Amino acid sequence: EMSEEKKIAYVFKVVVIGDSAVGKTQLLSRFAKNEFCLDSKSTIGVEFQTRTVTISSKLIKAQIWDTAGQERYRAVTSAYYRGALGAMLVYDVTKRQSFDHVARWVDELRAHADASIVIMLIGNKADLLHSREVPTEDAVEFAETQNLFFFETSALTGDNVEPAFLKLLHQIH
Ligand code: GTP
Prior knowledge:
Helix content is 33%, strand content 29%. The chain has 173 residues and is an alpha/beta fold. It binds guanosine-5'-triphosphate (GTP). Residues 20-26, 37-40, 42-43, 68-70, 124-125, 127-128, 154-156 line the site of guanosine-5'-triphosphate (GTP).
């Protein structure tokens, strides 16, 4: 049998960005390994994980980059965004501030990433029903004005994680 590597049609680089502790690393682990960790440590530096998916009968390797949301750990260089075809811009539905900062993250993308980058806005931790601070409608409205795709997800339950990543990869394709 031929190895998977030989049949890969494209490698798509995707970056995951957003404030610290919104769940970027856990979303990525859920998508790449179907794993979740409740006491996840803050990311230091840059890491990436990959998962190969079939899109329109082609094998696509998604190479998904994760970096720290904390300003003090971030050396945002053009290198992080270089070659990125997609971005997952994550906020926490239970932290209003993380949503208020989304506009700044969009500015950063527009400044450093390719103009054609596909952006998916993600409202994560949707499982925390009783501590929600960001109504879905606020995010829908923002996404429409900024031309972003939008999903609410839970890395904990896995809800909508797969559809969100697959939608982004489809749009890149
Ligand atoms: P930085 O690396 O500091 O930028 O953080 P991050 O955005 O990568 O956040 P991380 O994935 O480390 O998650 C932060 C905390 O939120 C951890 O305690 C996770 O277990 C928790 N968490 C992440 N996703 C979810 C979710 O969907 N639901 C709930 N309830 N908790 C979550």
